[in-house]
Amino acid sequence: MSSLTRVGLGLHFNLLLRGHAKRIVINDADPAIHAFWETLVDRPDELIRLIWAHAPTMETRRWSQQVLRDLANHTTAEVGFAAFFLNRTSRSGILNGGVIGGKEQAGPYKLDARYNRQRLVARIEAVAAYSD
């Protein structure tokens, strides 16, 4: 069993998905990160629905930031999705970091550079299949 932080999480999932680990345990004190994992494990279809429902736009990013400022007035799935969206659209994956491509989206990479919905949904489905 491996206790994980956000650092190196991709490596641990690769080990799990390739059969090199039988189980991983995720532990995070951040309520938004906890909401993401709770939704992925318990209600992956809801997370996937939110991914398809919200296009990777600056409007979705602003909505996600607002959700994380007001956790009490949003569902666990909305909080989890907001954390996921900000992770995928922020430089270095830092939730309160700057947006990939800058606010004006004038950089060489745009907000959706790490947000391929089809690929992300496939990864979520693969991880959810291992949850117990």
UniProtKB/TrEMBL annotation:
Keyword S-adenosyl-L-methionine: yes
GO MF annotations in UniProt: S-adenosyl-L-methionine binding; sequence-specific DNA binding; site-specific DNA-methyltransferase (adenine-specific) activity
Domain of life (superkingdom): Bacteria
Keyword vocabulary terms for this entry: Methyltransferase, S-adenosyl-L-methionine, Transferase
Signal sequence, renumbered to the chain: none
SUPFAM superfamilies referenced in this protein's UniProt entry, alphabetically: S-adenosyl-L-methionine-dependent methyltransferases (SSF53335)
Coiled coil ranges: none
Protein name: Site-specific DNA methylase
Originating species: Xanthomonas campestris pv. phaseoli
